[in-house]
Amino acid sequence: MIYAPAIVALLVTLALALVRAFLGPTLFDRALAVNAIGTVAMLLLAVLEFLTGRPEYTDLALVYGLLNVVGTIAVLKFFRLGDLGHASPVDDEEMR
Amino acid sequence: MIETGAVAALLAMLAIVGVAIARIRNLFGVVVLSGAYSFIMATALAALDAADVAMTEAAVGAGISTVLLLGALHLVGSLEAKPARRPAWPLAVVIFTGLLVAYGTHGLPAFSDPQSPIHRHVAPRYLEDGPRETGVPNVVTAVLASYRGYDTLGETTVVFAAGIGVIALLRRRRRKDGEGGP
Fold this sequence. Notes:
heterodimer; A: mainly alpha; 80% helix; flat
């Protein structure tokens, strides 16, 4: 069974990413760590679904992927602009 | 068997993340860790066959909550003040309540036991008479929109009111910014 080692490997990766999110000296380390956690959660879900013989739930993993992108973009926009509501005046200035 | 082990490992990580969230003073780190918490929780829920709850947890916990908390962080700053005293009494209450809940789980039926009361009370009637009584072909939709219609209406009202509140708060602040600007 190939799925069991895959799950163990993913859990180890998840633990390492958690350590980085917890220790992370800079905010970018934490942002990257949480992005990695989202990706690993997605993969873990996919493997678990194939392990239990219900691959039709893979849609759920796709939703995780989309949410992960939204969360990461929100975090990075917060870094850049310090706010989420603005129509990004920084970008306007760079355009000119 | 490996599935049980994976769920146990995920729950252990959840406990570690919970302690970390309580310990960290950098609020940005707390927001990031709570997003990670939601992703792990959603994976554990999906592994326990609760696909709809997992979807909600991922969407609300990791998606919307992260964005809203980051917006709040912009207003309050990202460093938490040190507590004035060590919260020993609340910690004791929380541990006691947790032990009580853990004790309470021994009274529950076994996981996914088909003979448990929740599967024998009204579920057979929903499955057998649902299409005839409600005229809705999908059982889940029939339960949500017809048998528990008032419940769903209440939930929708709560979500709608919360959305209006958030929009009102965020819009007021943005207009103030516009007046202060050029």
